[in-house]
Amino acid sequence: MQRTTNGTAPKERVILGIDPGTSVMGYGILLEQGMRCTLLEAGAIRFPRGDDHTLKLRAIFASTTELIRKHHPDELAIEAQFFGKNVQSMLKLGRAQGVAIAAALQRELAVVEYAPKRIKQSITGNGNATKEQVAGMLLSILGVKELPDSTDATDAVAVAVCHHFAASGRGMPAGGRGKGWASFVRNNPDRLR
Predict the structure, then answer these.
(1) Which one of the listed residues 32, 75, 152, 155 is annotated catalytic?
(2) CA atoms within 13 A on the CB side of 8
């Protein structure tokens, strides 16, 4: 177990990251110990294509509740809706997000939303980064050899890591703290390989 300079163990926190969707919901579970975070689990839950939308919402609620029961997270970090031209898709995604948030609130978890650009900026230093660039940085940041094949799972892990950075204030542009990627590299040489 790591020790801080005053001899006490670093504070632990479990973060549940969710990339909401009505067809696939990605999730990532991080254990934060002080300034370090470890990926505990990540995956994607697929919902049957033919199901009625309300049945999918019920499944999203049940799946989120089960992840909370299994991992006992302290906080939920969720990707916020992006605004597109297809209003029906936006409504469905908003409902999926709302149901996941409701499941977390029912369990009295703190909930924080992050815009897709903010997540990419936090992980790569570029708000327009590709999914491949985000995945590559996550491998380095988390010190893992591979991530799940599902981009939904990788997106959920990115949301959780973004929340870790925002809460710790280490080098990422969270609420005005830090100076972006250059500051992150300077402040976290141990995270680069």
Answers:
(1) 152
(2) 5
CA 131 to CA 158: how far, in whole Å?
A: 10
What is 12-191's CATH topology? Nucleotidyltransferase; domain 5 (3.30.420)
CA–CA gap between residue 153 and residue 159 (Å, rounded) = 10
Tokens standing for residue 139: 């491998």
Could you say which of 32, 74, 75, 79 is catalytic? 79
Q: Is 152 a catalytic residue?
A: yes
The residue written with tokens 């299994």 in the block is 70
The whole-number pLDDT of residue 6 equals: 53
pLDDT digits (tens, 9 = 90+) for 53-85: 899 999 999 999 999 999 999 999 999 977 667
Give the separation between CA 136 and CA 139, rounded to whole angstroms.
5
Specify whether 19 is catalytic.
yes
* DSSP conformation class of 155: H
| Catalytic option among 19, 32, 75, 155 | 19
